[in-house]
Design goal:
Serine Threonine Protein Phosphatase 5, Tetratricopeptide repeat, two-stranded antiparallel sheet
């Protein structure tokens, strides 16, 4: 705005200077005419042709040429009262005109330069304004881009919210924890840890319907993730909806990669739903897929034992004992099978073997004492119970063993 005002002022000044120069030129022209008229009246040379050129000099005049007369700087004029008055010569007038013309030309040049400078300044200002205007949107876009979070930043922030939610869960502030988890899921639905924490929280507070809804949303967000299938099967099983639980268990089985954890989960779900055939199928597949896995061998042997297939179970436990002779569990399980079948001698033998591998195991000692008592070896049972009391005096196991020892002592006294 200020630059436009300055340009306007400069334009007005240029017009004023032009008008002033024109008035000066007109006044000078009138002065020359008066001088010529005065010379004619005084009879000065060169008055024969009184016509005046456009520049103010007489046509045909010899003034300014070499006539043998040296022009004086001034001419005198005699007035009617006899006084001599100095008047300007044609040379003075011409010089004055040249000076005025030079001044006017200089003024015009200065005005033109000022106008050009002003135009240049205006153009530069306009260009700067356009550059600034053109640059502003890019700057805004840049700021917009800078304001957007990268996927890494989004993941980090949602992870931070998850950690805060877990802390609120530890503090018992479940409502705040759920709000944090909801915010985390709004930012990032691709992190299965957030979904799982939300489902576990809802299960913890007994909101089974919300837990099921969360797992279904989890499936929609991450359809290749197997975890929500397992959690949905568990949730439906807890509320007695076995049909839905079976369906999601079957889906989980079809999608699971077949790790040890997957087989344990699937067998547990099928067992909980009394789907014995499916449990057997999964366990058999597990042992075939991982024949060296002690977990697979033990689970398959336990299934056979529960189903009453003792021969198959004993065979599996013997394989386990051969694979891991320092593991007391197969010996304990074989002893348990023999005890249930009334073979106390074999049972005692395997219990003693288990204790040789893991001495001082209170549970195995109690079973050994029971087997000895059942077989009629009262003194042998009394010795084992007394040993339990000495190992863990004051414990619940010791109190029970002491009561059993007192009973046996009374029997022996009879």
């Amino acid at each position: 705005m200020y630059k436009q005002i300055i340009i306007g002022v400069l334009g007005v000044l240029l017009v004023v200077m032009t008008v002033v120069a024109a008035h000066q030129h007109l006044a000078l022209k009138r002065l020359v005419l008066r001088l010529d008229a005065a010379e004619a009246r005084a009879g000065l040379p060169g008055s024969e042709d009184s016509s005046v050129s456009p520049m103010g000099t007489k046509r045909g005049s010899s003034r300014g040429t070499d006539t043998g007369k040296t022009p004086s700087p001034e001419e005198t004029k005699v007035t009617a009262d006899g006084k001599a008055v100095a008047v300007l010569t044609h040379d003075d007038v011409a010089n004055h005109q040249r000076q005025q013309s030079a001044s006017k030309s200089e003024a015009g040049k200065n005005g033109q330069e000022q106008k050009q400078n002003s135009t240049a300044v205006t153009g530069a200002t306009a260009a700067t304004g356009r550059a600034s205007t053109n640059k502003q949107p890019r700057s805004s876009r840049d700021r917009g881009k800078k304001g957007e979070k990268t996927p890494e930043e989004i993941a980090a922030h949602s992870r931070a919210l998850l950690i805060q939610a877990q802390q609120h869960i530890q503090d018992g502030d479940y409502a705040e924890a759920e709000e944090m988890l909801q915010q985390s899921l709004e930012e990032n639905q691709s992190d299965p840890r957030i979904w799982k924490q939300m489902a576990q929280l809802q299960r913890q507070v007994g909101a089974t319907n919300n837990e099921i809804s969360t797992c279904q949303q989890w499936l929609d967000a991450l359809p290749d993730d197997t975890e929500p299938y397992y959690l949905l099967a568990e949730a439906y099983m807890r509320v007695g909806m076995d049909t839905e639980a079976y369906q999601y268990t079957n889906d989980y089985e079809q999608m699971a990669p077949g790790t040890t954890g997957d087989y344990i989960r699937m067998s547990h779900l099928y067992r909980s739903m009394n789907a014995r055939e499916d449990e057997a199928r999964v366990l058999s597949q597990w042992t075939e897929t991982m024949p060296e896995s002690m977990d697979a061998q033990n689970s398959w042997a336990d299934y056979q034992r529960r189903m009453g297939n003792y021969g198959e179970a004993l065979s599996q436990y013997e394989n386990m004992a051969a694979m891991a002779p320092d593991n007391p569990k197969p010996y304990q399980q074989m002893a348990e099978i023999y005890r249930r079948n009334g073979d106390y001698v074999q049972a005692q033998q395997y219990y003693e073997t288990a204790l040789s591998v893991r001495p001082g195991d209170i549970a195995t000692m109690n079973r050994l004492a029971d087997v000895r008592y059942a077989s009629g070896d009262l003194n042998g049972a009394l010795n084992v119970y007394s040993e339990i009391v000495s190992i863990e005096p004051g414990s619940r196991a010791a109190e029970q063993a002491e009561r059993r020892a007192i009973q046996i002592e009374r029997q022996l006294e009879q």
